[in-house]
Specification:
2 domains, 7-stranded mixed β-sheet, two-stranded parallel ribbon, 11 helices
């Protein structure tokens, strides 16, 4: 310690110039510093812009929103077609986003495709205790595959009536084999009928095809999302069941994929998707009563 103090008092001692050590001209070095600060400023503005358009409010919301977009763009190579059909507002509700279900990462990709937050409906048997904080933050609506969750339906309807956006996978499980359109759960059509909310249909493909669903998080993909024109069934005169059938026919026409009418296997229930509407807790009697 004493040696260091004596060295500091030595008139011949000079603090090393980091620019000289790095063999960088001072002018060039300061230019790099200014460019670096400018890059940080631009990134900060971009983050705030994303947060403002997505309607997020807390730092955690901002961080997760930005992470989701970066993950979708650079790890899953996400490309979105039909952007003109996706609302640019951060509060476009009431709105129901529906999509085919290819992998566990589908909710992340679909959320990244828009500028608004989506409240997802999820199968109760996928409620992992370790992710309780995530379910609460996302305000996920859990439903039972038995179809006996009328409370969940009331919560979903209340969310839509309050101008929210709801996300649902009508097939109620992962597409296996891929690039086939499975039967749509009738509960989806009944929810659309009851809420009278417009529907934003999206087709997703190119995600990692791997089971269980969560494993797709760690696999790279070439995800492609195609958004189609928003459908308003409110004045169609169709029943809930007919809406589900009509929606499925549209997906068959859009994709050109074959229809898969086979009943869902037990393995699908054992390894359900992380987000799905599986088992409709609304029956025809409740629809007619509405």
């Amino acid at each position: 310690m004493a040696g260091a103090q004596n060295l500091a008092k030595d008139p011949q001692f000079r603090v090393p110039n980091i620019f000289v050590i790095a063999n960088i001209h001072p002018v060039s070095a300061w230019a790099l510093v200014i460019l670096g600060l400018g890059a940080v400023f631009v990134c900060a503005l971009a983050v705030l812009r994303i947060a403002r358009r997505a309607g997020v409010r807390t730092p955690r919301d901002v961080g997760l929103q930005v992470f989701g977009r970066l993950y979708a763009r650079f790890f899953q190579d996400l490309r979105v077609h039909g952007r003109e059909h996706i609302p640019t507002s951060n509060a476009p509700g009431p709105l129901i986003v529906v999509a085919n279900h290819t992998a566990g990462i589908d909710p992340i990709l679909l959320t990244a495709a828009g500028h608004f937050q989506i409240r997802w409906v999820m199968a109760q048997d996928m409620r992992l205790p370790a992710l309780t904080w995530l379910w609460r933050w996302q305000r996920v609506i859990f439903v039972s595959r038995s179809g006996q969750d009328r409370g969940a339906v009331r919560e979903a309807l209340a969310h839509l009536e309050g101008g929210g956006v709801l996300g649902i996978f009508p097939e109620g499980g992962l597409e296996r084999p891929s690039r086939q359109v499975r039967r749509f759960q009738r509960g989806v059509g009944l929810l659309i009928h009851r809420s009278r909310a417009p529907v934003l249909p999206m087709v997703i493909e190119g995600t990692p095809q791997i089971d269980p669903a969560w494993a797709s998080l760690w696999r790279r993909g070439r995800a492609r999302i195609t958004a189609h024109e928003i459908i308003d069934y409110a004045g169609s005169g169709l029943s809930g069941v007919e809406i589900a059938e009509d929606l499925r026919e549209r997906y068959l026409a859009w994709t050109g994929w074959p229809a898969n009418n086979a009943p869902r296997r037990d393995s699908d229930a054992a390894q359900p998707p992380p987000v799905a509407l599986a088992g409709a807790p609304i029956d025809e009697a409740h629809e007619d009563a509405a």
